[in-house]
User: Fold these one by one.
Assistant:
Number 1:
Amino acid sequence: MRIASIELAAWRNYSSQRLDMVSSPTILVGENGQGKTNFVEAIVYAALGRSHRTWSDATLVRAGDDQAIVRMKALSGSRSLNVDIAITASGSNTIRVNGNPTKRRELARMLPLVIFAPEDMSLVRGEPEFRRTFIDEVLSETMNGAAADQAEFERVLRQRNTLLKTLSAKPGAAESGTLDTWTETFIDVATRIIVTRRKAAAALAPTFSAHYAAIAGGENRGSIRLVETVGEDIADAQVAGALREKFHVKRRDEIDRGTTLVGPHRDDLLIDVNGLNARTHSSQGEAWSCALSLRLAMVDVVTEFSTVGDPVVILDDVFSELDEGRRNRLAEHLDHIEHLIVTAADESTIPARMLGDRHRVTGGTIDA
């Protein structure tokens, strides 16, 4: 899949902008603060129905305007998708694909996209929540119903935690019977989340290792594996029973603490570099390479399972944190990408082999 064109109005620091993309890679060059990341953020929003930088849609609307508009045309073979999004500073947004109203969570499987951004260092150095979100992003783009299951899980978890807090404040309250009902509902959806995350991790692991070795070079090795509160040696068919047993054992502790202590919301994706935990034992270059390798592994998995075409890949200011050797190895490693979009503050950091259409970004304007 490739992006053919994108139009913005009142988006971040863009008053009005259109860019036609005729070849790959598409390279955006400009000093920091000029709008490179704002522009690719609009592409991400049009493809995935969300920003990769903020949860607040109101901040996407240009100061002084009431509404931001994003229009994007994507092509996959003879198939064409036209996405029209209106984002209001306050109120409801509208999303249409080929003129038809569309839900946010439906976009990801229509327009597969993978972005690597500086924020992705949190995948390696940050809390487990970031790595869980990464796996859920992979599932949202590859598996029917995954996004709905994730939303349902979050709803049930909130309800169960609210009930536990009530029981914690009022020991012996009548709601204790209701806890059993919410626990069974939780087990049902949590089992689906755990089993599908296992499938995603199994698909990601070998390609992550291959990408890390290619980027880091030499004898460097990387690996990933899930660490689960239910127990990593529990077979898929036994997950529900194992969860039920753990909730039975921890019932008193959960009520005392007012929170759910077992489940996929407490799992993690362990990243190892040369046998050491990358979160605590990786250099800046190693951590950056790990984050890149996770995203490239995601590209491979999305490509394998996508029914609508290969994902568009965005690298936002990637090369600045890599030494020359890693830059060149990465550039060579990206040759197969159908549509690659790259941003850089310093044009000299872009490997010479990476040719394509280059555009200058200055003050919310792109030289088309």
Number 2:
Amino acid sequence: SSVDLIKREFPEVVLIESKENTGFTGGNNLGAAVAKGELLLLLNNDTRLLTDVQPIVGAFTRSERLGIAGCRMEYGDGRLQCSMGYDHTPLRVLLSWLGLKRLTWLPSVFRREILSEDCYSSKQDDVAWVSGAFLMTRRRLYEQVGGLNDEYFMYMEDVELCKMVRMRGALVSFFPDVRIVHYEGSGKAWIGEQALKRTLRSYLIFTCKFYGTAPARRLRQAMSVVMRFRSLIYGVLGMAGGGAIAEEKRLGYRAAGEYLRGLEIPPQGKS
């Protein structure tokens, strides 16, 4: 097994064996709990470093205000991967799922990610979030905010962590000089039904926590309509020769719409 291989080939590595799959959040929290350094680097296992991380380490040394740092990401084929973005307001979440984000003449409220390639070529001092696939932070800050919120199995935990850090007055910054390959998404036709449902649930947890239960309920209703609309669109594409993927998306979005209708809003959050 991979565990045995690491024990045998890399005895110097501190290996933490979990008896269950605790998702992205649980796995990173387990690692952070035994870390001893002043800085923590959350790094996905489907990544490859293309540069040294020293520019970011140096930035933490020079600036006490820096709380979280992200880097430039690329897909396996070299294309830019969007890895920073805007605050996830309920309206932005809803509009971003209309599928119009590539229409650059529309305002940024239709997008969750920053798409402009120019922004990824220069340092961004203060953004709402950076991707958890590569996220460096101060260990004391991570501990102060309670680490990644384990209510999220996956998706949105990095957005929430960045928001919590910014609420403490620290900066979330992007550094283009540090680069990685992040293979997630390369060659995938779409994320799949289960991942879609987990994403939608995470949106509602986040919305409830930071905007209140009433906005979360409204978002749930509106997103259910959007999911069914997307199912209809892929149904039409399927009839026009869209193939098996169009049919898979049609069924997946329809199931997601039904899932939202029956999903309870988490009790926490603003009233």
Number 3:
Amino acid sequence: GRSAHTRAGTQTAAMTAGGSTYGGSSGSYSLNTTEEYNGTAWSGGGNLSTGTQSVQGDGTQTAAWVCGGYQHPNNNTTNSQEYNGTAWGAGGTLSTGRQYSHGCGLLTAGLIVGGHSSYSATTEEYDGSSWSAGANVHTALWTSAVFGIQTAAVSASGQRTSPSARLYETQEYNGTSWS
């Protein structure tokens, strides 16, 4: 069991990576494991290079990406990793280290939104090798639900300004701007 992990894939070819076995910030609870799902059962996959919790990513089971997250000690990381269905390799570097942002899209067209690094309104786009700035969301947020593709994404709900301030807002991204 784990929390604060990411996911990618479909119902019959999914994966999950990273996460935590405890809600605390101790690095000893951060996981580097990957598990794959075939629609019936889970099995082990390749390990992330470093245990990371509150990580975000998407893609497919054989072409996934993860980025950011928390790595002990007290590090909102900027690194990305790419998964080929067997092993993780190095990817591009985020402009801002963050955790609790959420992402969507493919390995060659990824998107992350917001995050917890003093509450971010930043959007970054991934082309499979490097991250670049996208348009900022209207409200700095973290823990929002993000889904879709890089040119047609939705950010729904989340938290803003402080952990007790819930956001009741849906924003749509067309690859250029949020509305």
